[in-house]
Amino acid sequence: MEKETVSKNFIEQIIEKDLAEGTYDTVCTRFPPEPNGYLHIGHAKAILLNYGLAREYHGQFNMRFDDTNPTKEKSEFVESIKEDIQWLGADWGDHLYFASNYFEQMYEAAEKLIQKGKAYVCDLSAEEIREYRGTLKEPGKESPYRNRSVEENLDLFRRMRSGEFPDGSRVLRAKIDMASPNINMRDPVIYRVAHMNHQNTGDKWCIYPMYDFAHPIEDAIEGVTHSICTLEFEDHRPLYDWVVRELEYPRPPKQIEFAKLYLTNVVTGKRYIKKLVEDGTVDGWDDPRLVSIAALRRRGFTPESIKMFVDLCGVSKAQSSVDYAMLEYCIREDLKLKRARVMAVLDPVRLVIDNYPEGQTEELEVANNLENESLGVRKIPFSRELYIEREDFMEEPPRKYFRLFPGNEVRLMNAYFVKCTGFEKDEEGRVTTVHCTYDPASRGGNSPDGRKVKGTIHWVSAAQAVPAECRLYENLIDESKGVYNEDGSMNINPNSLTVMKNCYVEPGLAGAQAYESYQFVRNGFFCVDARDSRPDALVFNRIVSLKSSFKLPADVKK
Q1: Of all helices (H) and strands (E), which one includes residue 265?
Q2: Cα–Cα distance between 217 and 240 in angstroms, integer?
Q3: pLDDT digits (tens, 9 = 90+) for 263-284
Q4: Which of 264, 262, 263 is nearest to 480 (CA)?
Q5: pTM of the model
Q6: Would you say residue 518 has pLDDT above 70?
Q7: Is 418 helix (H, G, I), strand (E, B) or coil?
Q8: Of 498, 427, 434, which Cα lies nearest the Cα of 469?
């Protein structure tokens, strides 16, 4: 039997070529987030890609915080990022690093560049540096401080470190080429003065390296072989290569760029999410309407569903957007055979079976999942008074309405046939109670005389029902208008959250714990909210509805 050929993505092809040619004898990848916010679904792709490559080639996966900018970084973000990555299943083992732990080595690297005549201290202001840089069509102008002597540059740089100069007064710049067609190579700033407390190093430093200088050094120190990043860093690669070459690292890492993961009609930008949080539009970075990893976890998505989604998206250099419905497809696929199908009534109306014995309760044995027998069975109580969904009764039904209405018979799921005999209303004309009779011979939902009913509705026994709150989510963004207005504000969907306060669930769900999930028959997949739910006051988040018009493209394999 012939072995199936597995198609390799372009990054795998590069790695295999490097190993075959002896460029590297092992593989080391890393995920290097800046701890200035929570991770989102796009980061999940980078995490799983880097971790997956390290595992595929029996190499090493490093987790490194790129904490070189103290202005926006917090310990809160460090902890949330670690939690997210562990939840996704990426195991860094003993390889947890902080860029700030390399500040001394970065400083020494900067001095080395100065001594080689490849870096200089510049007194131009940030605005002047921008003016001198030139444009895409015009070369830049050299700084009047570009030709300071090595001795003067070393003296000034050491005085920068000692705290002698105020913020913004001086920077250290790489001396490369002010006429380069790549603006990133026009003497980029590699160190700045910033008298700020750092979340990891405290007040030890008052100068901090710039990302484009620090990142290649971090990779080289850790022995990273393939530094995989997104396409916006493609134009920065010549600077990355320049840094590792000028610092004479023996086995310099190789930067490879891939296309970001873009989802339609969602907010992923950290500054936009931060604004939503600060404005109170959402209730935190883990609000289930967001696509931060913490929010997806709280809503009820699983690591397996996110991995399936990332795998389906694939790896390429071509920018593209993915329909959010594909992410929903993945969680449905993951949960449909794993979770019990239970009954929950979200908008209840009381149903009374007038000919059922008062005070009697019987237990019905029900399969937990008809598509997966291994999940076993459970017993649920049945009694004279039940709750049903309000939409399952109509006083004057339209054509092809097969649920309860006066004179019509339906099947109570897993129980009996019942026939509607009447109903009661309150003073406002709202139906409060539906009356029925039942056929005792139809237990289990089948009539011995062979008569058929077209409608089946779910229910919960009123006496044993457990109260709950259910939160129904739609897209945070109004899809019909796009994500952003012309003024930069966001088109928020006013119906992105509907809170159903007076729901009832089966008694077997009493005491359900955070993150436990179920399929609520006919209503969708739901998860116990990790923040607001308590054993005595259950809160469920709807992860996803049961059905979607989304279909996988024909050329995509599951």
Answers
A1: none
A2: 9
A3: 887 888 788 888 899 889 999 9
A4: 264
A5: 0.91
A6: yes
A7: strand
A8: 498
